[in-house]
Amino acid sequence: MTADSEPSLARETGKSAGKIGISLLVAIALGYVFSFLTPRLLGPIDNAVFASFWGILMGLGGALSPLEQELSRQSAVASMDGGRVGKPALRALTVGAVAIAVVAAVTIAVPVLNQRLYSGHLELGVIALCGGIAFACQFATRGLLVGHNRIRPYSWLVVAEAALRAVLLGLVVVAGLTGVVSFAIAAAVGSFAWLLFLRPARRLVDPNLEGEGWRPVTSRILLLLLGAGLTASVITGYPALVNVLAPGGDATRVGVLFATLQVSRVPLLLLTPLQALAVPTVVRLSGSTDGRHRLRRLLALGTVGTLVVGVVGALVGLLIGPWLVKLLFGANYASAEGWWVAGMVWGAVLLTALQLMTAVLVARTQANKVLVTWAVVAVSTALVLVLLPGDTILRAVVGLAVGPTVGLVVAAAFVLRRPGNVRATPGV
Asked: What is its main location (predicted)?
């Protein structure tokens, strides 16, 4: 990359971010429709069951986010060479889909997990299994599109996922089928939105093009999926993690807590498009000395900004959080407390920064550091859930605050080091 090309890259990245930003706003709005209506329609006790299922479904999807990042990396490298991705991309998709299917099957087959995660509803586990496999295809499609800078279809895919859920939820409500299973089906349908974008994605793949074999692809993808699975356990899958490690507690209060958690988590659920955009951008910026200096400055400023936003957000949550939860979900959720919201907002802001920082590490092909970062977050959170004295509510909120804080320190140390050039891997 030359110095003259950097302004062009900045303009291109800005335009792409703007288009994706618009689609994000639409998708966030549709996501809020789903997240706000389900607690209202189900009530606190049934919402606790649905929130655990939702945690598993979105946790499976969240665990697959590195598949999008890896394929966006391969796609960006191929695009810079004027070509298409080959067999390594298809191998990565296969490994991701099989791994997720195995994990989902375990939650169905092991009785204690089935009971704690799905409250004995076997059908919820089957729905999560189908949705998880579909998510593998969805994230692979998104990675191919964004890596080749096909921002328009990528943006439409982001919107389509949330729109399908919202539309089907509306149909379910009109039909009077307002139960946990019906809402679970509506939630899983969104992961099949990739079928609408299969044609433009297939044009970016050459299935006869050789490249990395099964062994390196499998080891890298499994390592990334493990890290993302740890990530998902403290983001989208947190209700499920709480049910497994800190079971019990008043069912109504736990349902209120999970509804409150949804408010702070919806933007995180839809942040993955920005992660995917970060990967090819880092690849291109890291091709020159000036680009790497600029990247480090942006990362340093972003870390400081995260702490400032986290403090402000926590104060706002402390002051108006309970009122907002009652306004959104109704009088049945009036027992939410300010300190719950403050802890959740602090954790959510730091998790947002952590997701972007680990996307930088993916772009540098430093999968081991991604794994270490999220292992620190997940283990810190799990230790709080298991060891902290107090009820389920206290442990859940403190765990959300402590884990991301420790993880941010580790991630910042990794990404602010001076990396070497990010070069294309031969055959990828």
From this structure: membrane
- For 388-419, where are the alpha helices, taking DSSP H only? 392-415
Look at residue 399 and tell me whether its pLDDT is greater than 90.
Answer: yes
User: What distance, in Å, lies between the first and last C-alpha atoms of the chain?
Assistant: 20
CA 145 to chain CA centroid, Å, is 18
User: CA 274, 279, 283: angle at the middle one, nearest 5?
Assistant: 145
Q: For the segment 199-255, what is each residue's pLDDT rounded down to a tens digit?
A: 888 888 888 888 788 898 898 889 888 877 887 888 878 888 998 888 877 788 888
Contact 30, 165 (CB under 8 A): yes
Q: Is the pLDDT of residue 268 over 80?
A: no
d(CA 196, CA 245): 39
CA-to-CA distance for 164 and 306, rounded, in angstroms? Answer: 32
- Rounded CA gap, 361 and 363, in Å? 5
Closest to 279 measured CA to CA, from 29, 77, 95: 77
Residue 270, phi then psi, degrees to nearest 5: -110, 15
Ramachandran category for residue 43: left, alpha or beta (phi over 0 → left; psi -120 to 50 → alpha):
left
Q: Which of 199-203, 218-222, 395-399, 421-425 has the highest mean pLDDT?
A: 395-399
Distance between CA atoms of residues 35 and 187, nearest Å: 10
Taking 50 as the threshold, does the pLDDT of residue 423 lie above it?
Answer: no
pLDDT tens digits for 208-218?
888 788 898 89
**DSSP 8-class letter at 146:** H
Handedness of CA 150, 59, 257, 353 (dihedral sign): negative
- Give φ, ψ of 9 to 5 degrees: -60, -40
Instruction: Provide the CA 226 distance to its chain's centre, in angstroms.
Output: 13
Helix axes 214-234, 338-363, angle to 10 degrees: 160
3-class SS at 23? helix
Mean pLDDT of 244-270: 77
CA angle 73/197/356 to nearest 5° reads 35
